[in-house]
Structures are given as structure tokens and as C-alpha cells.
């Protein structure tokens, strides 16, 4: 009883803090990422007071229907990144391993499963879910991960199955995925006990689309030389496109960010002093080593100008159509980067190499993320054949800092940069 | 012009002195606990070997894992670049290098000018490295220097299937308990290294002629096992272990 009262008081405190923060933000001209995240998480953590429902959803899952129903989406993967960045991944993964989960399992899954059972982790844990929404367009691990959590929290789970589009989005796939969207809406109706709001969905979809266009424009400012931002900056600013795309606040935030980047371009300010070499990053960041890696590359005048990860949240813009928004929603979510064939992925990487004019490709072979990592050797071979630029493979893990060998990786980066520099000198001659 | 190259590896520290494009002297010592002190010591000893004083040396390049702890070096390069330069100096025709050191193994692909075209390193694991052999030598109670000669006597190498040093050690112990011949077990150990290294070499796309460098090149058993596995001849230089230091001294002359 005492514990429950304490818990209730804590929720009131979080609620009031969030409200207060939101109020003060009205008078603040430029809102920081931290401001936005504080408001977002305090609203999610005090949802029980406001009568709102909380849904946990996979990073590539269709969030727009949740927002249309006034449900607060929460992302265990975004939280996994936070765990990684705060270097809590190793400890939480150890805990999951002690619970019986294999060390070969994704570190986001391990950290999230372990975190749910303790009163800890960043922000003292995620708010408890009322439902789970799992879309397997990013990987197969999420199926079992969400099933585990659905049993643990005893809440309903919705699974959206998106077949891999090796080469194309066939009529069969379209029909199959589209029909699941109707089931998804019905699931939300039963969870919220009210009719699905299609008008609201259209509004949210429009904003989501605008946000993605803005995000692409921000990422494209790095085609300028010097680049006004690095992929490490994109890894930081992406949190909002992942968690809150479809809300007006995010449009404001990205509009301001785009203006800042354009201003930097006009004034010729580069993110890396004396940018000499431009690189492309593949795979999820090594969250626990962002600072080290960014300094390591910057010390060699190398700027990671683009990456395949942050662009995944706007990579399917070309499939958006206003004629039939729900059909287009199904297509957009099915054709994301991780749900296409390796040849298609290589094509996209080559297009990025040309667009951002890069001198080398850095591939993070991520022990956690199998669908992202398993085609990398082929991609590397294709890139070397088609564009002849040096490629570097780094073996690490996005959130488990135990899978990182500093001196090995340091030597690899140094040797990679030596090759790039030598090539530049040879081409000058 | 006199130059020096210092290669601080995880097990041994190596040094080489060059004079006008000619190799004057080399030295190998154990790195031990203090990489910085090992750098000083191997430098002093190689100078003694060449009967020279520090003042005569114009440029110094450091390399290897301890490259940044050699404070008196003018510049440092990675061992990948130095092994390429060393191999190119010893034999300009070389197009691929397999370097097996104490804590890592690498495959390096060279272009026609002897410059690094591509490279692959082992992942975070001791299997397929010199350290793996050290662990096995201890389990076998055989001096590591005798490993090569013993293994080539084997008619039927044992099968060692584990990819992990710790598990491979228990596998070796169980083979000893089964009463398998010592030379067969050692030959099996060498084949397991060859299997590990050849999968890495496959990733970089090896081109002949191939040279093996690093301390493990001194083990004829590993070289034979690798030649068998890859189906190609591998050149072993008498300077294999100091190749990185030679490359560093060579590059120092270009500074």
C-alpha cells in the first residue's frame, strides 16, 4: 500500500513537472531536443493520471494510427539507444543473460527485457504499456521480444507482418499488408473502446509526411562542402523523427534545425574543422562510443557526412501517395531499408556515395542487428567493384559496450585513413 | 640517411635501423608490462647492435599496438601500412601479406606499387593468433619453438573443431587424454589456425605472390598448413618477425 502511494505521488510529480515544462516552453523561441524529450517522457510516464493509453511500438512500426487515436507511443529501441549512450547496456545485458537470454540476442532486446524487471535504467525505466505493437519490417527478433513483454506485462499484442520485398512490392504483398492495417485499426478500437478516427489519421499522416520531407532536407544539407553537420549530429537529432513524427512540435523543431543548417552552409561553417575526407556510415551507431568515434574521425579531418540509418526514416518518401493514404502507408512501411534485398540495399548505398560525394564507406558490423549486418560483406564487395572506394568494417555492438575493442578499432580506423590519404596523394600526382 | 623503425607488439617489441635504403640491424625483445620502456629498450639495443648513437638517427617511425607510447618517434603509422612497406622492401613482387602476430592476424592486399589496397583483421578473438599458440604450447608442455618441427612429422593431424581459444584448449586436453600423438595434435592446432586465417584471407581476395609476416611466420608448421589450405606457395622471409619494424624504418626515410 505504502509503495503504491509513493508510486502515485511520484507520478503526480512527473506530471506536474511535465506540465510546467510544457508551459514554460511556450515562451521559449527555440526548443532543444532535451526540452522535447522531457515533455514527451513525462507525459508518457504520467499517462495513467490523464487517462491516456501507452503503446510500446517497434522503431519501424506505423505510429500514425496510434497518434490518431491519442495513444502515446513509446519506443523500446529509442530507449535502447539511450541505455547504450549512458553505458548501461553491458550491465543490463548481463542481467538478461543471468535470466537465461543468450548473449547472441540483440542488445536492445536484452536491455529492454532486463530493464522491465528492475526499477532502474535511464529515466527510471519506461512507462508500463497498455498494449504492444510489433512490426517485423526491421527484424524477426522483435516478434519474440514483444511476445515476452506481452506475457510479462499481460497486455494485448498486435503483430504487423511485412514480407521482405526482395526486388518489388508485389500485388500479393500489397493486399496482404493492407488487410492487416484494417486489423490494426480494429485492434486499436478495441483497446481504446472507441471508433477509429480516420479524419485524424489523415491529419497525422500529412504531418508525418511533412516531417519526413523536412528530415530529408536536413540530411541533404550535408551535400555541401564543408558539411554543416555530421552523421553523429543526425544520430542525435533523429530521436524525434523516430518517436514523434506526425506531431506539430516536431515540425517546428526540424524547421528550426533546417534553418540553422542552411545558415551554416551560407556562412561556410563545417562540422569538422578543415574537412578533407567525406565518409558514409552504414548500420546503427555504436551508441556508447559516439564521442570517441566522432573525435577519432574528426582528428583525421574526416567527416561522416551521411549514413544509411537516419535516412531510413525518410527513405520511402517516393512511395507516398495522397490518393489512397492507407494503401500508401502499407507500402511505405513494407519497403523500408531493412526489408529489401541486399542488391537493393547496395543500390541505395551507391546512390548515397554519389549524392554525398564520399571518399570511403565505414560499415559497422553490428553483433546485435542481424538483418542490418548480414549482407554487409556483399555490399562492401559491390561498392568496391562499382565505385572503387575503400571500405572499412568495424565489429562492435550498438548498445553492449562489452563488444568493443578500442585498440583494435583504433588501428583499423587509422589504417583505413592511411589508405584514403595515400589514394588522395596518388590521385594528385 | 639513418632511420629507425620501432614496432611495439602485444608480445614482442621489434626495432630496425636503415642506412640509405639498406638494412643495418634488427632487434627483438619482449614487450612486457611497460610498452613505453620496451620502446626505449629495444631502440637502445638495436643501436648497440649497429654500433650507433642516438644522435646519428635522423628520423624514427613507430608502429604496432604500442605505437603511440613511443614518445621519441617522429611519426607513427599502423602496422598494416608498415608491414606493406616492409614486405615491398624485401620483395617488390609481393601482392598479399598474411601477418600473424601475438594478438591479431591480418590479411593485406597490395597494389602494383606496394601500397595497401585493402586489409582485413581478425575480430575480437585470440583464435588464429600467436597467443593461441602460446596457450596450446603450455597445454602440450612443449616449447613453442619446437612446435613447427614436431608438427611436420605428423601423418594424421587431429581434428580441432572449436573456434574459441578457451574451448580449443579443453579440446586439446581431451585429445591428450585420449592418447593421440603429440605431433598429430600440434599439426591439428596449426590446421585450425590455417582454417581461421584462410577464411579471413578469402574476404580480402588474396593475390599471389603471398608473404607471411609476424612472429608466427617462424612456425613452419603454420606456414605448411596455410599453404595446404590456400593451395598456394607462401614466401617466408628470415625477417618475418621484424618486418613491421623494417617497414617503419623504410617509411621514416620518406618523411
Can you describe what's shown?
The complex is a heterodimer of chains A (429) and B (255). With 429 residues, chain A is an alpha/beta fold. Chain A folds into 2 domains: 2-201, Rossmann fold, CATH 3.40.50.11890; 204-428, Rossmann fold (3-Layer(aba) Sandwich), CATH 3.40.50.11900. Chain A is 56% helix and 10% strand. Chain A is built from 19 helices and 8 strands. Chain A has helices spanning 2-25, 33-45, 47-50, 64-68, 76-85, 89-99, 107-116, 141-153, 171-192, 198-220, 231-237, 239-243, 248-266, 290-298, 325-334, 342-356, 370-373, 376-387, 406-428; strands spanning 54-57, 72-74, 131-135, 157-160, 277-282, 302-307, 360-366, 391-396. In chain A, the strands form 2 sheets. Chain A has a 4-stranded parallel β-sheet with strand order 2-1-3-4, sandwiched between helices. In chain A, strands 6-5-7-8 form a 4-stranded parallel β-sheet, with helices on both faces. In chain A, helix 8 links the parallel strand 3 (131-135) and strand 4. In chain A, helix 6 (89-99) packs across helix 7 (107-116), helix 9 packs across helix 15 and helix 10 runs parallel beside helix 13. Chain B is of the alpha/beta class and 255 residues long. Chain B has 2 domains: 1-91 and 241-255, Nucleotidyltransferase, domain 5; 95-236, ATPase, nucleotide binding domain (Nucleotidyltransferase, domain 5, 2-Layer Sandwich), CATH 3.30.420.40. Chain B is 40% helix and 22% strand. Chain B has 8 helices and 10 strands. Chain B has helices at 35-49, 79-90, 130-140, 147-151, 165-178, 182-204, 220-230, 243-252; strands at 2-8, 12-19, 22-30, 59-63, 75-76, 96-100, 105-110, 116-121, 210-213, 234-236. A 5-stranded mixed β-sheet of chain B has the order 3-2-1-4-5. Chain B has a 5-stranded mixed β-sheet with strand order 8-7-6-9-10. In chain B, helix 2 packs across helix 8 (243-252), helix 3 packs parallel to helix 5 and helix 6 (182-204) packs across helix 7. Chain B is globular, with a radius of gyration of 18 Å. Chain B starts with a strand and ends with a helix. The mean pLDDT of chain B is 91. The chains are: A alpha/beta (429), B alpha/beta (255). Chain A binds chain B through residues 377, 384, 390-391, 393, 395, 403, 405, 407-408, 411-412, 414-415, 418-419, 422, 426, and chain B through 65, 77-81, 104, 115-121, 123-124, 203.
Amino acid at each position: 500500500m505504502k509503495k503504491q502511494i509513493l508510486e502515485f505521488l511520484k507520478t503526480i510529480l512527473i506530471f506536474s513537472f511535465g506540465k510546467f515544462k510544457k508551459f514554460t516552453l511556450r515562451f521559449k523561441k527555440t526548443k532543444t531536443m532535451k526540452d522535447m524529450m522531457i515533455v514527451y517522457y513525462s507525459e508518457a510516464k504520467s499517462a495513467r493520471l490523464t487517462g491516456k493509453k501507452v503503446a510500446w511500438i517497434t522503431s519501424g512500426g506505423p505510429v500514425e494510427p496510434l497518434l490518431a487515436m491519442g495513444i502515446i507511443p513509446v519506443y523500446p529501441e529509442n530507449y535502447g539507444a539511450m541505455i547504450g549512450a549512458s553505458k548501461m547496456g553491458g550491465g543490463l545485458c548481463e542481467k538478461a543473460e543471468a535470466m537465461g537470454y543468450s548473449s547472441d540476442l540483440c542488445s536492445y532486446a536484452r536491455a529492454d527485457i532486463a530493464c522491465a524487471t528492475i526499477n532502474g535504467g535511464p529515466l527510471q525505466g519506461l512507462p508500463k504499456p497498455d498494449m504492444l505493437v510489433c512490426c517485423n519490417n526491421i527484424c524477426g527478433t522483435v516478434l519474440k521480444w514483444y511476445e515476452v513483454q506481452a506475457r510479462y506485462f499481460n497486455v494485448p499484442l498486435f503483430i504487423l507482418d511485412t514480407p521482405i520485398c526482395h526486388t518489388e512490392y508485389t500485388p500479393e504483398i500489397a493486399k496482404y499488408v493492407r488487410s492487416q492495417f484494417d486489423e490494426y485499426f480494429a485492434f486499436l478500437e478495441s483497446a481504446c473502446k472507441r471508433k477509429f478516427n480516420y479524419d485524424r489519421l489523415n491529419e497525422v499522416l500529412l504531418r508525418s509526411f511533412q516531417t519526413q520531407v523536412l528530415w530529408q532536407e536536413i540530411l541533404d544539407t550535408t551535400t555541401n562542402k564543408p558539411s554543416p553537420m555530421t552523421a553523429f549530429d543526425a544520430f542525435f537529432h533523429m530521436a524525434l523523427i523516430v518517436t514523434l513524427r506526425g506531431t506539430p512540435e516536431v515540425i517546428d523543431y526540424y524547421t528550426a534545425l533546417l534553418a540553422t543548417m542552411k545558415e551554416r552552409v551560407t556562412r561556410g561553417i563545417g562540422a569538422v574543422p578543415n574537412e578533407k575526407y567525406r565518409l558514409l556510415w552504414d548500420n546503427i551507431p555504436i551508441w556508447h562510443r559516439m564521442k570517441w568515434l566522432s573525435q577519432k574521425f574528426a582528428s583525421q579531418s574526416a567527416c561522416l557526412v551521411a549514413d544509411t540509418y537516419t535516412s531510413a526514416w525518410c527513405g520511402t518518401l517516393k512511395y507516398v501517395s495522397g490518393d489512397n493514404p492507407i494503401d500508401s502507408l502499407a507500402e511505405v512501411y513494407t519497403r523500408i531499408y531493412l526489408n529489401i534485398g541486399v542488391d537493393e540495399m547496395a543500390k541505395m548505398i551507391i546512390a548515397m556515395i554519389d549524392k554525398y560525394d564520399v571518399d570511403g564507406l565505414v560499415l559497422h558490423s553490428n553483433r546485435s542487428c542481424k538483418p542490418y549486418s548480414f549482407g554487409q560483406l556483399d555490399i562492401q564487395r559491390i561498392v568496391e567493384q562499382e565505385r572503387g572506394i575503400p571500405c572499412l568494417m568495424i565489429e562492435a555492438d550498438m548498445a553492449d559496450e562489452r563488444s568493443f575493442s578500442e585498440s583494435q578499432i583504433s588501428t583499423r580506423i587509422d589504417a583505413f585513413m592511411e589508405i584514403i590519404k595515400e589514394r588522395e596523394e596518388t590521385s594528385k600526382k | 640517411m639513418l632511420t629507425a623503425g620501432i614496432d611495439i607488439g602485444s608480445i614482442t617489441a621489434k626495432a630496425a635501423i636503415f642506412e640509405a635504403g639498406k638494412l643495418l640491424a634488427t632487434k627483438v625483445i619482449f614487450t612486457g608490462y611497460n610498452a613505453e620502456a620496451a620502446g626505449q629498450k629495444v631502440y637502445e639495443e638495436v643501436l648497440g647492435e649497429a654500433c650507433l648513437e642516438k644522435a646519428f638517427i635522423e628520423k624514427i617511425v613507430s608502429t604496432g599496438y604500442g605505437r603511440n607510447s613511443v614518445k621519441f618517434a617522429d611519426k607513427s603509422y599502423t602496422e598494416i601500412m608498415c608491414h606493406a612497406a616492409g614486405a615491398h622492401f624485401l620483395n617488390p613482387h609481393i601482392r598479399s601479406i598474411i601477418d600473424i602476430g601475438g594478438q591479431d592476424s591480418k590479411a593485406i592486399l597490395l597494389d602494383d606499387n606496394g601500397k595497401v589496397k585493402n586489409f582485413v583483421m581478425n575480430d575480437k578473438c585470440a583464435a588464429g593468433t600467436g597467443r593461441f599458440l602460446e596457450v596450446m604450447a603450455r597445454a602440450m608442455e612443449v616449447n613453442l619453438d619446437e612446435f613447427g618441427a614436431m608438427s611436420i612429422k605428423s601423418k594424421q593431424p587431429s581434428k580441432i573443431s572449436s573456434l574459441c581459444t578457451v574451448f580449443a584448449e579443453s579440446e586439446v586436453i581431451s585429445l591428450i587424454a585420449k592418447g593421440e600423438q603429440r605431433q598429430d595434435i600440434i599439426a591439428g592446432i596449426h590446421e585450425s589456425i590455417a582454417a581461421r586465417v584462410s577464411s579471413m584471407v578469402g574476404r580480402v581476395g588474396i593475390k599471389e605472390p603471398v608473404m607471411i609476416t609476424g612472429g608466427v611466420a617462424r612456425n613452419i608448421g603454420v606456414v605448411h598448413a596455410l599453404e595446404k589450405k590456400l593451395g598456394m606457395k607462401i614466401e617466408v622471409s628470415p625477417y618475418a618477425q621484424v618486418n613491421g619494424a623494417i617497414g617503419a624504418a623504410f617509411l621514416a626515410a620518406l618523411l
